[in-house]
Design a protein that fits this description.
Elements lengths: L2 E5 L4 E6 L7 H7 L5 E6 L1 H17 L3 E6 L9 H14 L6 E6 L1 H13 L5 E6 L2 H7 L4 E6 L2 E8 L4 E4 L9 H17 L2 H8 L12 H21 L14 H10 L7 H18 L5 H13 L12 H8 L5 E2 L2 E2 L1 E4 L14 E4 L4 H11 L5
Parallel strand pairs: 2-9, 3-4, 3-5, 5-6, 6-9
Antiparallel strand pairs: 1-2, 7-8, 10-11, 12-13
Helix pairs in contact: 1-2, 3-4, 5-6, 5-8, 6-7, 6-8, 6-10, 9-10, 9-12, 10-11, 10-13
Bound molecules: nicotinamide-adenine-dinucleotide and glycine.
Length: 376
Amino acid sequence: MPTLSLALPTTHYDIVIEAEGLATLGARMQTLKLGRKVLVVSNPQIYKHYGERALAALTDAGFAAEVLLLPGGERYKNLAHVQKVFDRAYAMGLERSSTLVALGGGVVGDLTGYAAASWLRGINFVQVPTTLLAMVDASVGGKTGVNHPQGKNLIGAFYQPRLVLMDPQTLKTLPSREFRAALAEVIKYGVIWDRTLLDVLESQRRLDQYRAITPEFLTMILERSCQAKAEVVQSDEREQGLRAILNYGHTVGHALESLTHYKTYRHGEAVGLGMVAAGRIAVAMGLWDQASCSRQEKLLAKAKLPITLPGTLDIERCIALTRGDKKVLDGRVRFILPLSLEDGVSLKGPHLAKMTDQVSTDLLKEILVGMTLLPF
Ligand code: NAD
Ligand code: GLY
C-alpha cells in the first residue's frame, strides 16, 4: 500500500493509495485528531456504490457523520451548490474542528474543497477521489473552486486537504470513457516530469480500460502520477512558476472544450489533443525530437484517445479561444512545451518542459491544420 506525502511550509498530508481503503477512512481520520462532526459530500451516482461503506467507516470510528448529495455534473459546480453545503454546515453546527469529506470525482472535490476553505474561514477537508482524473490530478495539490457563469474555475482558493485517500477499486464502476480520458493526464506526467513513466506505460499491451490492467499496475501509475504532482506542488504551491507545467496540453485543450461547448470532448480528451499540438509545436521549434513526439502520440492512441481533429473544426475560432484562456500573460498566449533530454541528465524533473509565449499564431495554425489530417 503506497503512502506518499505532500509537505508544504504550512501543512503536510498523506496521499494513501489502498485497495479497500474506503474501509479505513474513519480510522485514518481519527489519527489526525479531527473533530467529531463530519459532512460527507457526494452525488447519488457515486454514493449508491460507495456511500454506505464510507459512512460506516466514519461512524465505526466514532464520528457523527451526515451526508449531503448534490446533483452530478460540471454544471452544478457553482456557488449555488456551495451554498447548499453551507446551509447543511450551519444546520449541523459544523465547527472549526469539523471536516468536510469529498467522496467523488473532481466536481465534488473542487466544490467541497472550496466550501471547506470558506466555512468559518476554513475547516478540515478530506479528499476521497473516485475517478481516475481526481486520483491523479484534482484531489492532490489544493486547487479548489467552482465555475462562474462566464467561465470555468474562475472562483477558487488554494486550500490543502488533511488527507487524500484513494481506493483504486472504486474505479471498477467508472465509465471507460472517463478512465481513458484521465490517462491523458498520466501520459502528461510522463512527458513533463517523469520520462520513465512513459516506459512503464509502453510496457502494457493495453491501457484503455480498468479491466485491461492489473491492480498492481494501476496502483503503480497512481503512485507515480501522484508523486509527480506532489513534487511539482511542493516546489510551487501557488503556481508562481513551475506549477504551470501541469497545464501542458491545456492551452489548446481548453480552447477545444470551449469551442465545442464542453459537449464533444471529455477534459482529458481535449488535453490529449492539446498535448499532440504542443508536442508538434515543440518539434517545429527545435525543442523536442520527432521520436519522442511520435512516442507520445502512440501512447495517447494506445489509451484510445483522439489524436486528430475533425476537418470541420473552426481553426480560426479555436486559435482565438486560446487567447481567452487563463494562460495568457500580457496578451500573449502561453504554451507549455516539452524539451529534449540532454545526454546524461536525469529522466525526472523540471528540465523536461518549459513555458513560453513565443509560439506564433502562424505556427499554431499550421499545427492545428496538420492535426486535421492523418497523424505523422
Ligand atoms: P466528475 O467529477 O464530473 O466525474 C465524472 C463522472 O463520473 C460523474 O458523472 C460522476 O458522477 C461519475 N463517477 C465518479 N466516480 C465514479 C465511480 N467510481 N463510479 C461510477 N461513476 C463515477 O469528473 P472528473 O473528471 O473526476 O473531474 C472533472 C472536474 O475536475 C472538473 O470540474 C475540473 O475542473 C476539475 N479538476 C480539478 C483539478 C484540480 O487541481 N483541482 C484538476 C483537474 C480537474
Ligand atoms: N491541475 C493543475 C494543477 O493542479 O495545478
